[in-house]
Structures are given as structure tokens and as C-alpha cells.
UniProtKB/TrEMBL annotation:
Protein name as catalogued: Isocitrate lyase/PEP mutase family protein
The organism's taxonomic lineage, starting at the top: Bacteria, Pseudomonadati, Pseudomonadota, Betaproteobacteria, Burkholderiales
A GO MF label: lyase activity
Source organism, top-level taxon: Bacteria
Keywords associated with the record: Lyase
InterPro entries (UniProt xref): ICL/PEPM (IPR039556), Pyrv/PenolPyrv_kinase-like_dom (IPR015813), Pyrv_kinase-like_dom_sf (IPR040442)
Native organism: Paraburkholderia agricolaris
Length: 290
């Protein structure tokens, strides 16, 4: 019931004029921290999750089982609704139906499905190819039929912009909306003018993917809202920041400089204990001490 309420609340929130910003979560620490900050929505990044869980590129190497494991763990640890990357649905139409049911059953607020050929690739890297529009339309229709909760969000993503141009991406977007997608995600627009054209083309919640160093301009949430977007995801921000911080502190350790000079750049150990739930452990120990 809690998950159903969270999905209903997210659907209602996305219908409001103010844009929703969703940080990318990629491991259990990022989930716990983001959840504690009371965002309206979180986004389970495929790139970051595959990197942190398996240590491999986001190039179709993670299986449905791998990702369902992460969806289940992330959603169990968060009261904030999470939209989760479902890649291409991990196969044909039967796989798409199974993936939607699995993600919904695990507690996700929605699933992102994309029209890339298998094996897929990160949307801001080269070499992506897309399936026929009709094939993706069938996937979306199956996804809509497969869900139990009508508030479970189906996010339809097209990667056609990079290889086939914006006009083809817009045509695909129209077809995906007609097929029943709740949120439309046109990946990798490359200019502000393209973003404006996307925002003007649809009367549907629109998702924009902000990747630092990626193809899409780094506009502010207010600017993106003015262009017509309802949801801005920041999938890479967290793991890029963490990796940068790790490199800095590991370099100091390697250089035999210690870490005392890095204290201001680190999360405090006391706050980390609170974040991970140690106070409940200590209270349990006090109650059951000999």
C-alpha cells in the first residue's frame, strides 16, 4: 500500500507545473542518503548501478536478474519513489512483460524502457542503434498491459536522435505516447533549440537526462521547466562525485600524506553511522544486554 501511495503521489507531482529533479542512485549508500533528503523522486541509473555492482560498462552486460536484485534492494531501503532503468526489457515481448512485473513487484515507482538494439549502450556514448518503431510500440503496449498498478510509470525512451536525427526521434515519441507511455524520454538532444522543440511537441510529462560531460546542454532546472520538461534526472552526478573524491583521498594515502587534511571533503564518521542505521543497533544492544 505504501508503494502504491508513493506511485500515486509521483504521478500527481509530475502533473504539476514545477519540475521534479531526481538524483541518480547507484548503490545502497547513495540510496540511503538521497532518501534521507526527501526528494520527490529518485532515479536508479543503469550506468552507475552496473558499474558499482559488477564493475563493467553499461553495454548490455548486466542481466535482468542482476538488475532486479538492485531494484529490490534499493526500493526496500527507500520511502522515496524510484524510477528504475530497465534497459531494453532484457529480451522480447515476453521478457518485457516479465521485467515490468518484476520491477513493479520489487517496489519501483516506474520503469524506463528504451528502443535500442540489444546489447544496449549508455545514451551519451557512441555506437547506439535502434530497433524499428513498430517493435518498440509493441514493447510499450505489452508493458502497459503487464503492470498491475495503473500508477506504475512506463517511461519510453528513444535513442534515435543521435543516429537518425531529431525529427525521427520526435516521430517515435509520438508513436510511443499513442502506445500508452506515461513519460516520454528523448535521449541526447544536443542544443537548447532541440530541447525547446521537444518541449513544444508533446502534451505529456517529458524527462530530460542531464549528464555532466554528456551531449545535452547543462541548463538549470528552471530553464528546463520553462522549455516544457517535467522531470530532470541527474544519473551520473553522484558516482562521478564519489569517484573524484575517492581518487583524491586514495592519492593522499598512496603518497603517505595521511588523510587529516581531507577532513572537510569527507562525510563525518558519526553522520555515516546515523545514515546507515547504527543508532537502532545500539538501542537494540542496550535493550537486550546481559
Amino acid at each position: 500500500m505504501i508503494r502504491n501511495n508513493a506511485r500515486l503521489n509521483l504521478r500527481a507531482r509530475l502533473s504539476q507545473p514545477e519540475i521534479v529533479v531526481a538524483p541518480g542512485v547507484f548503490d545502497m549508500i547513495s540510496v540511503r542518503l538521497a532518501d534521507s533528503m526527501k526528494f520527490d523522486c529518485l532515479y536508479m541509473t543503469g550506468y552507475g548501478t552496473v558499474a558499482s555492482y559488477l564493475g563493467v560498462p553499461d553495454a548490455g552486460l548486466a542481466t535482468y536478474t542482476d538488475m532486479l536484485n538492485r531494484v529490490t534492494a534499493f526500493c526496500a531501503a527507500s520511502d522515496t519513489p524510484i524510477i528504475c532503468d530497465g534497459d531494453t526489457g532484457y529480451g522480447g515481448l515476453l521478457n518485457v512483460a516479465n521485467t515490468v512485473r518484476g520491477y513493479e513487484g520489487a517496489g519501483a515507482a516506474g520503469i524506463q524502457l528504451e528502443d535500442q538494439e540489444f546489447p544496449k549502450k549508455c545514451g551519451h556514448t557512441p555506437g547506439r542503434r535502434v530497433i524499428a518503431t513498430e517493435d518498440m510500440v509493441r514493447k510499450i503496449k505489452v508493458a502497459v498491459e503487464a503492470r498491475v498498478d495503473p500508477d506504475f510509470q512506463i517511461v519510453a525512451r528513444t535513442d534515435a536522435r543521435t543516429s537518425l536525427g531529431l525529427d525521427e526521434a520526435l516521430r517515435r515519441g509520438e508513436a510511443y505516447v499513442r502506445a500508452g507511455a506515461d513519460i516520454l524520454f528523448i535521449e541526447s538532444p544536443e542544443t537548447q533549440e532541440e530541447l525547446e522543440k521537444i518541449g513544444q511537441a508533446f502534451d505529456k510529462p517529458l524527462l530530460v537526462n542531464i549528464v555532466e560531460g554528456g551531449r545535452t546542454p547543462q541548463l538549470t532546472p528552471a530553464e528546463l521547466q520553462a522549455l516544457g520538461f517535467s522531470l530532470a534526472i541527474y544519473p551520473a552526478s553522484g558516482f562521478l562525485a564519489v569517484t573524484h573524491a575517492l581518487e583524491q583521498v586514495y592519492t593522499r594515502i598512496q603518497a603517505l600524506k595521511g588523510t587529516s587534511g581531507e577532513a572537510d571533503a569527507m562525510y563525518s564518521f558519526a553522520k555515516m553511522c546515523d545514515l546507515m542505521g547504527f543508532p537502532a543497533v545500539w538501542e537494540f544492544d542496550r535493550q537486550h544486554a546481559d
